[in-house]
């Protein structure tokens, strides 16, 4: 056993010699990480749901009757060329009347000499442009076009969704932070207990000339082991669980495999550092 | 037989106990390579404190500690660990790791020195035979008698052949048979050329040629 293998041997021995303590640490951290994973999935799912809703947002431009159809056609091409526009539908006065009829089931304009409904353009946008600020600036630009009498888009609704998403993001951040700090504190405490149990051995090893780091390393591996196993088992449990349940109208969005791998590596690293802190505070 | 250059040199050491009384006032000690110093003093006279100062477990308020020609600085962890690897300890601060077997206890100093597995195994088996401990190799240290523990500690102290041994109360609590076994071993180690600092409350009965005997009186060595 070289000085490389010694800390690994010591860490395995630490874990095996106190199976109950090891199981308690693993279960506690598993529950913490499971909670973290569920919060993460809930945030992703909520985000996905609202993004899907926002993707349906459109803007309608209405035109003055005095403005010629050819001028409206020119405006249509001008607007189509603007950044963020995906497609445009033109609606004539007749088409607007037919739509109203389809909606109401009767011709509400019967008896009118002239069709009072305006011509309009319905603009659809690329998803990535759809924010309330961007919609405002777009509306401002098209409002300056001669002949446009009115602009409609669900500004308040988009703003409410944005506010909701920002609250979800904030809640996930703080909840994640609390869970992360709890996991770190838990590991630090568990490692301090482990150091206490092996105090005599550590003292003798140091008296015989062992460096601090070679003693720390065993506990750093112990911290890393608990967090890595707990994080991985948490995701395995979630994948297994999601394979057995389904929800109507809600698409559960899991983080990507890369993100999950990064999260597990991050958890292992946090355990490694917490192991160091726990050991350092105890030596 | 000692050479001129001291490997341990304590100069004007002053130490106050945690309770506030003065343990050492201007204590001086020099031990050269291959030399034995037997320090006798009553309980509470500061024998273990002296061992603590030499192995860097305690810092005196005043004075200089020179170990192997270098000033001992316990704040420099790497330096302290390197000094400690040159010391083999028995008794007092130095204890066996109770939940480990005799074999594991013996290989600990070799692991610390980064010896290969093959070299470690060979050295441990050789030492087990040398100290007649073969039958006890798998026994946990806590299961051993006081006498057996002393023998295992002696074996552990010399397994990596450090130049200095600190032996604190080697005869305490031993029956006559084990005492003579320990004395024989200590004599053998002295002849082998280890420098030794032996701390004892009474006369050890240890006869080492050219060994220096000191008494701790009023916080200094006489």
What are its keywords?
heterodimer; A: 283 residues; alpha+beta; Alpha-Beta Plaits; four-stranded antiparallel beta sheet; 9 helices; rod-shaped; B: 222 residues; alpha/beta; Rossmann fold; six-stranded mixed beta sheet; 6 helices; 32% helix
Topology:
The complex is a heterodimer of chains A (283) and B (222).
Chain A: H1 5-17, H2 19-54, E1 58-63, H3 69-80, E2 85-91, H4 93-104, E3 120-125, H5 132-143, E4 148-152, H6 155-197, H7 199-207, H8 212-242, H9 257-282
Antiparallel strand pairs in A: 1-3, 1-4, 2-3
Chain B: E1 6-16, E2 22-32, E3 36-40, H1 47-54, E4 62-67, E5 70-71, H2 77-84, E6 87-90, H3 102-112, H4 117-130, H5 146-159, E7 164-168, H6 176-191, E8 195-200, E9 212-217, E10 220-221
Parallel strand pairs in B: 3-8, 3-9, 6-7, 7-8
Antiparallel strand pairs in B: 1-2, 1-4, 4-5, 9-10
Helix pairs in contact in B: 3-4, 3-5, 5-6
Series of H and E elements of chain A = HHEHEHEHEHHHH
Biggest beta-sheet profile of chain A:
4 strands, antiparallel
Q: How many strands in all of chain B?
A: 10
Mean pLDDT of chain A, to the nearest integer, reads: 91
Domain count of chain A, please report it.
2
Shape of chain B: globular
The whole-angstrom Rg of chain A is 31 Å
Structure explained in plain terms:
With 283 residues, chain A is α+β, with helices and mostly antiparallel strands. Chain A folds into 2 domains: 5-52 and 168-282, no CATH class; 58-153, Alpha-Beta Plaits, CATH 3.30.70. Helices cover 69% and strands 8% of the residues of chain A. Chain A has a 4-stranded antiparallel sheet. The model of chain A has no long low-confidence stretch (mean pLDDT 91). Chain B is 32% helix and 26% strand. A 6-stranded mixed sheet of chain B has the order 6-7-8-3-9-10, sandwiched between helices. In chain B, helix 3 (102-112) crosses helix 4, helix 3 runs parallel beside helix 5 (146-159) and helix 5 (146-159) packs parallel to helix 6 (176-191). The longest helix of chain B has 16 residues, at 176-191. Chain B starts with 5 loop residues before the first strand and ends with a strand. Classes of the chains: A alpha+beta (283), B alpha/beta (222). Chain A binds chain B through residues 1-3, 6, 17, 200-201, 204-212, 214, and chain B through 55, 57, 77-78, 81-87, 89, 93-100, 108-109, 111-114, 116-117, 120.
